[in-house]
User: Fold this.
Amino acid sequence: MKIVVAVKQVPDTATQVKIGADSKGIDPAGITWIVSPYDEFAVEEALRVKEKRGDGEVVVVTLGPERAKEALRTCLAMGADRAIHLNDPAWEAADSLAVSRALAAVIRQEGPQLVFFGRQAIDDDMGAVSTQVAEFLGWPCASWIMEETVAADASSVRVARQVEGGLEIFDIPLPCVLSAQKGLNEPRYPTLKGIMGAKKKEIRDVKAADLGLGADGPRLSVVALEGLPPRPPGRILSGEPAAAAKELVRSLREDAKAI
Amino acid sequence: MKLELTEEQQMIQALAREFAEKEVQPVAGRLDQEARFPHETVKRMGELGFLGIAVPEAYGGAGADPVAYVLALEEIAKVCASHAVIMSVNNSLYCDPVLKYGTEDQRRKFLTPFASGQKIGCFALTEPQAGSDASNQHTLAVPDGSRYVLNGRKAFVTNGREAAAALVVAQTDAAKGRHGISAFLVEKGTPGFLVPKVEDKLGIRASDTAEFVFEDCRVPAENRLGSEGMGFKIAMSSLDGGRIGIAAQALGIAAGAFERSVAYAKERKAFGVPIGQHQMVQWMLADMATAIDAARLLVWRAATLKGAGQPFGVEASMAKLFASEMAMKVTTDAIQVHGGYGYIKEFQVERYFRDAKITQIYEGTSQIQKLVIARHLLGTQ
Assistant:
């Protein structure tokens, strides 16, 4: 079974993100880049499907600048078989729709039975691409899945997705698109052998023209990024503990309306 | 000159950091207090490839290089010096010599399971009366048909209780002195191979340091590593590599104590401001950072030379001497930055201070390193 996993390289969760000089993007200086954590669940699940079935191929794909290769190499070190890098200046200003169109085109070329995404990338948190890709492909899609089991004959997959207060269970015919929620699995570390072997695995560069895509401008453009307003200072209650406690309860109830 | 890590080295460093912080950090303080060997996390280190980093894949290793090895060791020692020494001994003092001097059969039996982390190995050179004076070997190995009969006592063997096999150095021809010393691979469970004692130590308390006794222990002749009389050379060349490992361990201990000190200096207030704003504390932190970086460059140089197949013995001694002395000073100052809290176990810098001390002693004391360096300078032996 061939499985494609789409990943995105994002700033490390520990990074203090600063707004760039043009107010429309972030300042990339000093950022450590990682594979978006939800995408790691997706890679892990794809590897588990392959291991459980005892055969198959896991292909990771990303769209991004040259540095995004590091993210692909991390996935290869975890155990993915090969990688595809959608790497073209034409995609520099790509919005989620353009990314989805490109991913759908490369997935169509690859012809996998299963496509995994993370539920959203943790940088802009749009969470749009997996469903848009499914739409372009005309394939069924389940988002935020917590469990999956591929049928022995590889005709369908049973998935459980998180809903308020429980799980919703679906049987979905293959091929299909799934997006991973936290809790689906615990991603493995790459091993040292995996790291050393990653360089020998193929990372294929793909241009927009290779997919028959022209340069269509973004439908969605960022007007401005704004920082959060500074947090108002806290209030310290002084005085006798008994009186302070009384004032705290009053304040929580009447001012903050928290209780 | 190029000071740049390869992408693989950076990935291995990042993996070691993540593993150490997520899996070792939560248990490190407790293991130290209970002097308990970390079976679970050592098993994980083996699975990830940390126990045979520079051993070729064909023998169960990760096929990386000595620079990747010191990067990983530093990250692990930043969190727990015991894990670092378990790893260093298995890599440098056991796997390295078996790879370098072992026959194909010996490598299959005594290297592959050890480099892949299914088993761990140890190195038994020191004796009660032979420490710095390592060639003063009293353990005897007497040929008897297809076997050698070992009798004697070995002291301070790191990984000694947990190891499945030991590289044991013994005298096969006392009349020849150091040229009559040979090395053997001895399996645990061989009759006459006893482990009567595990030491209670000041630091690196989660690693086990054992005493070995050999009583008419019969070792097959095919377990001799290298030819007869080569044992002292094997031991010394193993220690050259081992010293890079211990230097990296000392570097990590210092870097870990330093990181805790910087964090504390930003948080702890005295005289109305964080203590990091006081010049006395800034002075200490600046000195610590500079010394740590200097040690790191020495460690990286020695590892780079070893990886390039060039002589590295003196550079390893310099790295080990400087890094271990530096670690003792930096961990002492780390407690000073923490003040009274630094003396309390909860803040953990006292563990780094206790762990640092051994790096000035094992695999050649600081005094022996100076001797090695001076002999090289003066061309004497």
